[in-house]
UniProtKB/TrEMBL annotation:
This is G-protein coupled receptors family 1 profile domain-containing protein. Keywords: Membrane, Transmembrane, Transmembrane helix. It comes from Caenorhabditis briggsae. It comes from the Eukaryota. InterPro entries: GPCR_Rhodpsn_7TM. Residues 34-364 form the G-protein coupled receptors family 1 profile domain.
Length: 408
């Protein structure tokens, strides 16, 4: 906090009815739903070994989403509440913690985006050959790189904000949040704040997710076709080998056979072949079930990743357009509706971005059967079992009382 002897001036009101409804009401509801759903998802994962599988990405993504939603409520709804209702205590607290919470929120958003990219990259590598598997040590290395890159890209936000104190001014004028001296450099503002962050946080993740998703689908289709053909070839080889070891009667034995001895007929051959095919049925069924399970997992993984990419694109497109307009001609945005249109668009962009973190559980539930089964089992253990215990308790209480009275 820097004390300055500047003139006292109260900032113009930033809150109106529309912003209160959009940010405070709708935004808070979305964040609350997101915190509940992501917490439920984390509790559903507690029975799984997430630290040794690729579910670690989804587990960490749910943790980051909860923290991002908490940061959103501390930044945007809180600022509008103290501005609209003139709450001095909230005004002071907001100016004290905003520098730290804003930095943490920016780092977490960048880390969640890079986690999706890292999960897509691992899935692409594993799709090249069915035998390739990522070790937990390598996965932890990737995650460490993700958090390091996010901290490097967005950690500088902490040094771009400056809290100024005006002790001689009355309340609601004695604190001021301003940009620091480093942001007044045109090279820093243009190269780092816009170009580097826009490329590494928006453009590059979009491009990588689309490319990796397309390549993964292509590799999985090739593996599926090759695996199906290898199964057919192996089954044919086994059937040929079985036919080669069948005893074939010689002409001499057929000529010397008595007339009353039962001869080898077509029904006998069909019975032998049917018995051989019956011996191969368990193997064929097992391989068919494994192929169906592999196709199902491929379809679920593809649908899940495609849904995440689509939601990410839709919810961040408005933010990208606003960022581009801010760089090309910021005066145009400021002149629309005396600046209120720009504020409304920025608020809508924030709500859309936070909504992508709040509704990942419905996406997982709809697209992935394994996660859907785990969520249903956890919900059944939490709600249905508890209701059954309550009903059982109500039924057993009178029985216990009557049995006690009989004993007495």
């Amino acid at each position: 906090m820097i004390e300055i002897n500047d003139t006292c001036a109260e900032d113009p009101p930033q809150a109106d009815a529309f912003r209160m409804i959009l940010i405070v009401f709708i935004g808070t509801i979305v964040c609350t739903i997101g915190i509940v759903l992501n917490s439920f998802l984390l509790l559903s994962f507690r029975r799984l070994d997430v630290f040794r599988s690729n579910l670690l990405y989804l587990f960490l993504l749910a943790c980051l989403d909860i923290l991002v939603e908490l940061c959103f409520m501390l930044i945007f709804p809180a600022s509008l509440v103290w501005d609209y209702f003139r709450v001095e205590f909230l005004y002071t607290c907001w100016h004290i913690y905003i520098k730290y919470v804003s930095t943490v929120g920016q780092v977490l958003i960048a880390a969640s985006t890079l986690l999706i990219v890292a999960a897509s990259f691992e899935r692409y590598i594993c799709s090249q050959r069915s035998s390739i598997q990522f070790s937990p040590q390598r996965r932890f290395l990737f995650i460490s790189i993700v958090f390091t890159c996010a901290l490097f890209m967005k950690g500088s936000v902490f040094f771009e904000l400056e809290l100024q104190s005006l002790p001689h001014c009355p309340p609601f004028q004695n604190l001021r949040l301003d940009l620091s001296e480093i942001t007044r450099s045109e090279s820093y503002k243009t190269i780092w704040m816009f170009w580097c962050r826009s490329i590494f946080n928006v453009f590059l993740p979009f491009f990588l997710l689309l490319v990796l998703n397309s390549l993964t689908i292509s590799n999985l289709n090739k593996l599926h076709n090759n695996g199906f053909q290898s199964i057919l070839v192996e089954n044919r080889c086994q059937s040929d080998a079985t036919d080669a070891f069948k005893p074939s009667p010689s002409p001499e034995s057929l000529s010397c056979r008595p007339l009353l001895e039962p001869s080898v007929t077509s029904s006998t051959i069909s019975s032998v072949s049917s018995s051989a095919s019956n011996d191969q049925m368990p193997t064929l069924l097992r391989r068919n079930s494994e192929a169906c399970a592999a196709r199902r997992r491929k379809r679920d993984a593809t649908r899940t990743l495609a849904a995440l990419i689509t939601i990410y694109l839709l919810t961040n497109t408005l933010n990208l357009l606003i960022t581009i307009m801010e760089f090309i001609n910021p005066d145009v945005l400021g002149s629309l509706g005396e600046g209120w249109t720009y504020k409304y668009l920025a608020d809508l962009s924030s709500v859309l971005t936070i909504s992508s973190t709040a509704f990942r559980l419905p996406v997982y539930f709809h697209c992935n059967r394994d996660i859907r089964t785990q969520i249903r089992d956890f919900a059944r253990s939490c709600f249905i079992d508890q209701n059954e215990k309550k009903k059982l308790g109500k039924l057993t209480m009178p029985i216990t009382a009557s049995s006690t009275e009989s004993v007495l």
